[in-house]
Sequence to fold (433 residues):
Amino acid sequence: MRMYDIIQRKKRGNALTDGEIQFVVQGVTDGSVPDYQIAALLMAITLKGMTAQETTALTLAMAKSGDMLDLSPLDGIKVDKHSTGGVGDKTTLIVAPMVAAMGVTVAKMSGRSLGHTGGTVDKLEGIPGFETSLSMENFFATVRKCGICIAGQSMSLAPADKKIYALRDVTATVDSIPLIAASIMSKKIAAGADRILLDVKTGNGAFMKSPEDARELAQAMVEIGNTAGRKTAALITDMSVPLGFAVGNNLEIIESIEVLKGGGPADLRHVCIELAAYMMHLADKGELPHCRALAEEAITGGKALETFAQVVEAQNGDRAFIDDPARFPAAAVKREVTAVTDGYIREMDTEGIGVAALLLGAGRETAADTIDHSAGLILHAKVGDRVEKGQPLVTLHTASEEKANIAAEKYLSCLSFSDNKTEKSPLIHAEVR
Fold:
């Protein structure tokens, strides 16, 4: 078998066999296939596409290229959730404790932030002492004790995907839906969960800008999961505005605690209840209306907040910060940015707002960058809200006046205004099973 022939077949629009795909992934993993040939194949796939069978074969081959986590020693059905990323998306911090509090096992490995999107692991590491790099023994012990563990991807999960993604990033092949689906699902399958819920974001702050593209990606991933024997479903949720009011690591932890206490922004609470309900439904806890009631009960009864505090403590974090979020250190500089005109907020460039948070120190442009956990921003107005000139739009939290000045200019450039009220996008666009 020759890589040249495989590239030629895909260039001509032919479907690759399972054996050919396994040959490619093995070559990626052991380095026997040079980068330039893999790059050529990635471009051919981007231009010619892949069948569902090809995409599934690629996913499973990448999943098996490294460690495959076996969660069978843990009791019950294990459910995982994956978000395709957005701005202010702190749902895992809320949803995972909600679901675990109602008796569903959540053994989760999460990622870090890069670019305009946030990462769950970075947010949790803002809690003093919280450990995300766990041995398998400690990972399992925490799940058994709390019903939940949220750790960083310390295992060698889908190493072939890491190499392929690095090449996609520099060869303009990131936007191929089969490659996106295979990348995400290879890690989810390797992580060992029995059931998988996908939160596929759509809007100007998401990678999938249109609902149609988001649905295509969701359908591809759901089909892969189900074919691989993992019951899978997806919700397409809105990211045309930031989710909630807080963007930035400690600020998002504080807002998550507010929701777990029964308060917080209405949009964030609604999305979290829907995600939690679908996760419990996948775990055979009942039909969706019943599972929504369970999700509400997890919050109103205080079980979800206590579960979150317990898992923080189990992972060596200081639970006093959960009991009293005022303990989180404040940023050195807080700057209010006010409206320069009267009117309704017509549109927000959500990806740009994520960049503004990054400029404040809340994110990273490269994996080596350091995060300022106290940095970020708090929104005071969103799409559809009327503001008067001089009214606060956002409060910036950062380490220096210079960073505040740069981010303030960026933030204002992300808003457009109108004399007429704009209708808000639905929070949940569709479900895919």
Summary: The first helix runs from residue 3 to 11.
